[in-house]
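Pasting as-is:
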Amino acid sequence: MRFIFLAILTGFAMLCFSQSGPAGVGNDDGTGSLSLWYDANQGVSETSGAITQWDDLSGYDNHATPPAVGNRPALVTSAVNGYPTVTFNGSNDFLTAPDDASLDLTTWSIIIVGIINTHKNYNAFVVKGADAQENYEFLTNFPSTGNIHFPVRYTNGDRSTDSESGEVFSTSTYEVHQLDYDQSNFEYYIDGSQTETNSETRTPQTNSNSLYIGNEQSTSGRNLDGSMAEVIIYSSPINDAERLILHNAMAAKYGFTLDANDFYSQDNSGAGNYDHDVAGIGRVDASNLITDAQGTGIVRIIKTGGGLQDDEFLMWGHDNGALAATNTTDIPSGVQARWERVWRVSEVNSSGGGTNVGAIDMRFDLTGQGAVTASELRLLIDTDNNNDFDDETPISGATSLGSNVYEFASVPGNATGLRNNRRFTLATTNTSTTPLPIELRSFEVQAQEKNVAISWSTASETNNDFFTIQRSQDAQEFVDLFHIPGAGNSNEVLYYDTLDQQPLAGQSFYRLKQTDFDGKFSFSPIESIFRKVTNITFSAYPNPSSGMLNIRSDSNRDGVTRLSLLDVQGREHLNTNINFSTGTQIHQLNLPELPSGVYFVRLLGEGVSTIPILISQ
């Protein structure tokens, strides 16, 4: 196989409990404290720039959707440092995610990377629960000041309504804001600096309400007038080392400067703008450390056997060069090619002074890159820091750990290894058997009226026979749609596009399969899209119902739509997908045990269809 596909996080890393959340803080496998993670650069479905779904990357699948077409916020591409953001108009844009146990919190870290367009009386970022009955709430109030406001209702019936003067979102530059609660204190941080501590020892009450993004439930005038690049929630406060690394990574990615503890310097233009997939390990003290991190990139660094001292950090990011072994000039003797992509490290204390964390283990996830012989891999480190690798001594000794992960163990932190400001990359001694294959630069799907537009681009191609577009209703079973010839061999950026002229209604999933001339193949990441459900009618019976409900659909095409059950207060008690087929179909639903009363079946389609039903238990 000859393609590397971006944004694939390895199953191996999850099994080994590496930190694959933002900046390497938390796991993204739906088992840890990372409860929610929205990143405008990943998992966004949109139609003509209007967002139809924002995927949760935490592994808990708390995906957010607009309740109706008129509530869709805008995806703004290349909005900040080349990365996209989600922009809310301040009047009717917002998203909701169904209630889930992972969102019902009694402690937390809530992190927002964003900006306010206009300060007004209440800009809501994240709210779980209706006003005065919130589990947690993160918003601004008072139009003249934009103070941060975080009221909470507690299990004893009390409610705190903290509103901190001086803690405000900027209207001119993106910032990272963090609100922590550990049932001892509320703590607030802006751009690497702690700005507030409030003592509080009560337990927040949880609720069954949906999570609102950019608005507050059952309250008018609180729609966010601003933009967010990332929304991150942990079910318990992250430690001090994790916070410092995360804030530095966000500042690098989105191109702003921290007010304090700004120690990752490789994002500066003078250092070469190593802004991408930044992650890190480090230690504040014995209780506040992170020793294993991968983040969104393919490089994982592990500090084993102790040796990481207080106030020591190692962070790395890359220059966004192609993941392709096409550089055959800047290479040392014995190497046939190296990756275009180069990483650079800050190995420093919290003041930015150079330090030495000692030897580390470095792993590369080469998923999707075809056959690799571990003995032919070489690690190149720019030890003289002259931005050239042709005068370096390659490091051998890579071992295969399975699942396409390869490790260079005990990479030194001395003159021959990693130190502050040094660059590194990966190379091969044999491009025939370890090609470090070429890169799929992008793969995108977009709704266009009655069609779905599918496009992708490659940085270069080797031995590429053809592509296959595949589609699925459930992201499990895929069917082939089209075969598109590849270029065979190419060293240029090539662009491809096609149309699915008979797309599914509702939710569908697409992926790209690439096949070599020798029959080997690999897959791209899966992209999802939600198209309006049209030409379909629903009915529900029996009504009243005593525990079982039939949903009848009549449609002229196959598709998937979302169904939820709400009470008269708008609380959600059921959320599921309905798969419908051409013609008439009956779907049976077993309703949860609920008090007798009036409820509403809500179906997401061309707008929102609501069917009132009476439940009698």
